[in-house]
Amino acid sequence: GGALYVFSALYASLGRRIAQATQLASFPIPSSWSQTFWSSFVASSFVSGVEILEAIVDELLLKEEGGVLFPNKLQQAMLSTLELEVEFLRSFDSLLMPINLVPTSHTSIELVVDFDGTITTDQTSPLLPLLSIQKKGKSKEEAEEEWGKLGENYMAMYNEFLSTSLPSSSTIFEFLEKYDEFESTAYNPVEESQSLSHLTMEDIKACALIVHHNSCPNIESAHPFPANKPFVSTTTSIRPGVQQGLRKMTEESTSLRIISLNWSQEFVSEVISLSFPASPLPSRVLSNSLFSEPPPHPSFPSTGKLTRRVTTSKEKVVFTSNPNSLKITIGDSLNDLSALLSSDIPIILKNHQTKQLSGSFSRVCKSYGLSLLPLFASTFPSLSSPSPSPSRKKNVIFVAESWWELCVWWKEWQKVSGQQPS
């Protein structure tokens, strides 16, 4: 089964990327390649089948074999296959010529990574409000209904904003200014509803445990739930490949920060701490807080008012503006766009469940002529732009399928850019 997935993924991904390469570079398909062969190579039904296999493999990565998390060999096979794919593509010397994307003026790499939907498989934002509402005497069903109404109201305002602001904004920067204003007010209804009050640090840690247990369902004995386990549930977990990717990037980068619009920096830090024990990553989290400074006693309850630090995409940029660093930003949605456009190498991750880009993100990019190119185009200039540094044109964003792809890309990018681990 593992071999079937690995080679199917290889062929499907190769087919898609070679198709993109030939279109972007006006590279003719060799006449020796029959139409039947080419059609089979990139058939959408074949790609769909591989995506189903990928989902199955993701599930296998969380299973036990003999009491040990078994898929180390499978993970290594997947990574080795991606490396083989890159090696294959590089055999087209006339088409794919690597260049140095790191200007000599940059002395270090600065990595900026989003949390919800980027590190996690889905949004974690409902967890704390659902627990807060129940702590005030509501049932689980009543809490879900109350929070659901707030969510519906937000989505109605969000869709109205897009429908009015996209046509009226002449440039992407004008649109993003309006979007920042919208984002900064989106927290107000949540505060006014008191949906984040009565929460303690113990509550926050318990919710973080839920995400951790979903990511590692076979290690509950190592991190048991507290006696007053919260009455909230979610299927959200850490995305496959995140641990491997962030560990490697942390080891080889002078700066890696996790910057999030989440309600609670304490929650994000706790999830990261559980997923990366004995790692400096929890101290590199920047987000909002349910508490005022300094951090309270563990039993001190939240008031429902946020200490706002990062409420817009633009504010992510403020915290990462080091002119001497080459900046790589990894996000997954529209609220990452300002940060992505300010980066030297902007990377957008596809949704873990749908395997598609965020609909609103794609819509905005299309409206303002932003190019979305495969991630490995950042190491293949002839696939992305005649410019020596394509991302610096501020109209190119690179698309990653998964963290497994990011793992291999990181290794390859360092090789072709000439950037040595710091």
Side by side, the strands of the main sheet go: 5-4-3-6-7-9-8
CATH superfamily of the largest domain: HAD superfamily/HAD-like
Give a count of the beta strands, DSSP E runs of length 2 or more. 9
| Helical content class | 40-55%
Strand content: 5-15%
Number of H- or I-type helical stretches: 16
InterPro entries: HAD-like_hydrolase_phosphatase, HAD-like_sf
3D architecture notes:
It is built from 16 helices and nine strands. 47% of the residues lie in helices and 9% in strands. The strands form two sheets. The protein has a seven-stranded parallel beta sheet with strand order 5-4-3-6-7-9-8. Strands 1-2 form a two-stranded antiparallel sheet. Helix 1 crosses helix 3, helix 1 runs parallel beside helix 4 (72-90) and helix 5 (127-135) crosses helix 6. 35% of the residues are buried. It has helices at residues 2-24, 35-42, 44-60, 72-90, 127-135, 140-168, 172-185, 188-192, 201-215, 242-252, 265-275, 313-318, 337-341, 359-367, 381-384, 403-417; strands at 64-65, 68-69, 108-113, 255-259, 285-286, 325-331, 345-349, 371-374, 396-400. It is an alpha/beta fold and 422 residues long. The chain has two domains: 2-90, no CATH class; 108-417, Rossmann fold, CATH 3.40.50.1000. It is globular.
How is the secondary structure organized here?
Elements: H1 2-24, H2 35-42, H3 44-60, E1 64-65, E2 68-69, H4 72-90, E3 108-113, H5 127-135, H6 140-168, H7 172-185, H8 188-192, H9 201-215, H10 242-252, E4 255-259, H11 265-275, E5 285-286, H12 313-318, E6 325-331, H13 337-341, E7 345-349, H14 359-367, E8 371-374, H15 381-384, E9 396-400, H16 403-417
